[in-house]
Design brief:
Elements (H helix, E strand, L loop, with lengths): L3 H18 L3 E3 L2 E3 L5 E5 L6 E6 L3 H20 L2 H17 L1 H12 L3 H4 L2 H18 L3 E3 L5 E9 L2 E5 L5 H15 L2 E5 L6 H12 L7 E3 L4 H10 L5 E5 L2 H12 L4 E5 L5 E4 L5 H13 L11 E5 H16 L19 H17 L2 E4 L14 E6 L4 H4 L6 E7 L2 H9 L6 E5 L3 H10 L4 E4 L18 E2 L4 H8 E9 L11
Parallel strand pairs: 7-8, 7-10, 8-9, 10-11, 12-13, 12-17, 13-16, 15-16, 17-18
Antiparallel strand pairs: 1-2, 3-4, 5-6, 6-20, 11-19, 14-15
Helix pairs in contact: 1-4, 2-9, 3-6, 3-8, 6-7, 9-10, 11-12
Bound molecules: nicotinamide-adenine-dinucleotide.
The site of nicotinamide-adenine-dinucleotide has 32 residues, from helix 9 and helix 10.
């Protein structure tokens, strides 16, 4: 594994091009300035300027949507095997530039390299998985009746918009864009304004792999202008969105006039429920991993620990010892687990919960005070003696902050677990199989793991319920979103047609 000094040296080489040329929009295979001018992006590590970024607005979105519309028929009609070849080449291109992607992603987001070094591998996997689906995906069926051959076909929607957040931008962009392209859609991507670097690398890799101009367009900028214009554009058939729940509802409103199909992957306040009969060593590892990895800036983090009263004291004591040993530091240091939070606003939000916890009467058992530095560093934090009606238990903090709540029995655990506006994931720790099944059945969440951390398997459905989202990704579910069913009825003979008039 490279040292911090080596990583910094390599990073400097990769950043040079951004420093010189900034990030421009990419429309129909060409670099374009943003009609709204530029904005500056900063690193959360030391607040230094990274580069200027094109500030796209409705004019740029219109140009990108038109390019996507124009490129659509040829991309839709390209033989599946050729489309597959291009997607596989994109995966190869991602792997070939894995180090560059990981270093830029860390500098841009503050995420630790030990986690982001896997981002490119995951991104390449997303392209490979959906490349394989291009030729094997169900593209229709025959639902025949006595008189008609009723054929269904599944056709790509057309140009679609993809709007992504800042937390793990590379992985999430590939996760949305790979299936859209595999389905035969063209795209306009609006990356998060706070971490735009890896989106630029990705579109470059795709074009180098032979993706025709206009199939993948990228417009940078802010949600309220570029993002809103994308949702409102009449040529854009759907919006695949990952971000906050309140932005998700704005996406729906903005898309209403053009009857936009929307897929929303939103926030979470996910419970991890530890029963007294669980394998407590493994549970402890998973609890720590699922809230303190990726800076806790992950939608699937287990931010509410529900621990059975009979084991609470001992489990929390072990947790505190482990949490205090987690290393916070420079994201490019291979020893670092927690890097800086993304930026000033988010830092203010996360640290505000340290006071809120005290005001609400919880105990700060670990962390709980910002770290003085040039960047946005916070320590891994644990709140104990919490109740589920406290703000620290109800609101998505989106940082390395865990709230621990005690429960007496299964009924109480289920009531607390479901008493939240969100419903993305749930994690259960018990060795009682019947209880695990019963609890999973009643837990209000789109995804549940029993005796495991979150392990993503691409053919399975990914998504949430309640305020955590609408729609599913993964396997054929992705194609359900990016494609439309069409019915064609063929008469098989001279069946009776009602004759009206004379
Ligand atoms: P955000 O909602 O603030 O921004 C996400 C994207 O939406 C950005 O590109 C932003 O520019 C754009 N946007 C903002 N306002 C818009 C508008 N009016 N119209 C169109 N686009 C608009 O989210 P964030 O702060 O970047 O990301 C953190 C959130 O993302 C957390 O809530 C997290 O849980 C969620 N998230 C969910 C998943 C999931 O799979 N469910 C995965 C990762 C992150």
């Amino acid at each position: 594994m490279s040292t911090l000094a080596e990583n910094l040296e390599n990073l400097a080489t990769h950043l040079e091009r951004f420093r010189v040329s900034g990030i421009r929009n990419r429309i129909a295979g060409k670099d374009c300035a943003g009609s709204g001018g530029t904005f500056t992006t900063h690193s959360p590590v030391d607040k230094s300027v990274i580069c200027d970024v094109a500030r796209g607005d409705a004019t740029d979105i219109d140009a990108a949507a038109k390019a996507a519309q124009e490129a659509f028929p040829a991309w839709r009609d390209m033989p599946a095997l050729e489309r597959k070849k291009i997607l596989l080449k994109i995966a190869d291109g991602i792997e070939a530039r894995a180090e560059e992607i990981a270093l830029c992603e860390c500098w841009d987001t503050g995420q630790a390299l030990r986690f982001m070094s896997k981002a490119a591998i995951r991104g390449a996997e997303n392209f490979r998985f959906f490349a394989d689906q291009v030729t094997s995906a169900r593209d229709g069926q025959n639902l025949r009746s006595p008189t008609l051959m009723n054929i269904t076909t599944r056709v790509p929607l057309g140009p679609v918009g993809v709007i992504t957040p800042w937390n793990t931008p590379f992985m999430l962009s590939t996760w949305k864009i790979a299936p859209a392209l595999a389905a035969g859609c063209t795209i306009v991507h609006k990356p998060a304004e706070l971490s735009p670097l890896s989106a630029r690398l990705l579109v470059e890799i795709a074009e180098d792999a032979g993706l025709p101009p206009g199939v993948w367009n990228m417009v940078n900028g802010f949600g309220e202008d570029a993002g809103k214009a994308l949702c409102e554009h009449p040529d854009i058939r759907a919006i695949a969105f990952v971000g906050e729940s309140r932005t998700g509802s704005l996406i729906q409103k903005q898309g209403a006039d053009t009857l936009k199909r929307v897929h929303l992957e939103l926030g979470g306040k996910n419970p991890v429920i530890v029963f007294e009969d669980a394998d407590l060593d493994r549970a402890l590892d998973a609890v720590i991993f699922m809230i303190y990895s990726i800076n806790g800036e992950r939608c699937t983090s287990s931010s509410r620990l529900l621990v059975q009263e009979s084991i609470r004291e001992d489990f929390e004591a072990r947790l505190i010892e482990r949490v205090n040993a987690i290393q916070v530091g420079h994201p490019l240091d291979p020893q670092t687990v927690i890097g800086p939070l993304i930026g000033e606003e988010h830092f203010a939000k996360v640290t505000s919960y340290f006071d809120i916890a005290k005001e609400d009467g919880a105990t700060i058992a670990a962390g709980g005070a910002p770290i003085k530095s040039d960047g946005y560093f916070v320590p891994p934090t644990l709140f104990t003696d919490a109740k589920n009606d406290m703000r620290i238990a109800r609101e998505e903090i989106f940082g390395p902050v865990l709230t621990s709540i005690a429960f007496k029995d299964e009924d109480e655990a289920l009531r607390i677990a479901n008493d939240t506006p969100y419903g993305l994931t749930g994690y259960l720790w018990t060795n009682d199989l019947t209880r695990a099944l019963r609890f999973s059945d009643r837990l209000e969440a789109g995804m549940i793991w029993v005796n495991s951390e979150n392990v993503r398997h691409l053919p399975t459905p990914f998504g949430g319920v309640k305020a955590s989202g609408i729609g599913r990704d993964g396997g054929d579910w992705s194609f359900e979103f990016y494609m439309e069913q069409k019915h064609i009825g063929f008469a098989m003979g001279d069946h009776h047609i009602p004759r009206l008039g004379v």
